[in-house]
Write a structure and sequence with these properties.
This protein is about 30% helix and about 25% strand. It has three helices and four strands. The chain has a four-stranded mixed β-sheet with strand order 1-2-3-4, with helices on both faces. The longest helix is centred in the last third of the chain and has 16 residues, at about 95-110.
Length: about 120
Amino acid sequence: MGWTTGRQHTFLSDLERDYFYALDFADEVTDIREQYPLLLLEETKLIAEKLGVEHPKDPKTGVDVVMTTDFVITYMDKEFARTVKPSKELENDRILEKFEIERIYWESLQVDWGNCD
């Protein structure tokens, strides 16, 4: 249960949980949303196509999936999007391709996006 939000939060890694704790203690943070969906699916598919990379798919069905950003944070009345991955994953080309889709998506909405490790 988050102190800032009063909601239950779910994390996919210890790193995400630890990042959340840091956000939850910051006085200027007024909202924390995790696993935030990048909607519409057609938008991220178009970005992937323009980049010449494959859009993320469900490994079992091969169907395109809605991408998510680990955190969207409201800090001092401004939104920030943050992806939390261990630095060793930054050597993986596929991870970087997905990051680039996220970056361009958030840039189109004029939201500051970044990776935290």
